[in-house]
Design brief:
The protein is mostly helical. 65% of the residues lie in helices and 0% in strands.
Length: 97
């Protein structure tokens, strides 16, 4: 599968988790599994939020984004949120792994 397809799948999985945080508990993915560095960083932030028992929302996400990179991650988060979330992420996880 090409890099663009993998990046889009990564966005779809992150989008699904943002819309239904209970999917995070079920996922087999870790941030290191993501090939796109921005997706990897966003997932890493979700891991941190989960560990700290904080909600997965943009206010908390941006607390962990370096200020000089906020615009980049804001655009990336908008792209992720535009992806159609799915409640069935298992098949997509296997594409990422």
């Amino acid at each position: 599968m090409n890099e663009v397809s993998i990046t889009n799948i990564e966005k779809l999985v992150i989008s699904a988790i943002l819309f239904d945080s209970s999917l995070f508990e079920e996922t087999i993915l870790k941030s290191k599994d993501f090939s796109n560095l921005q997706n990897q960083k966003i997932f890493q932030i979700l891991e941190t939020l989960h560990k700290e028992k904080l909600p997965f929302d943009e206010d908390f996400i941006f607390k962990y984004v370096p200020k000089n990179e906020k615009n980049i991650y804001e655009a990336m988060l908008i792209e992720i949120l535009r992806a159609t979330p799915t409640s069935e992420i298992k098949a997509y996880e296997l594409e990422i792994k």
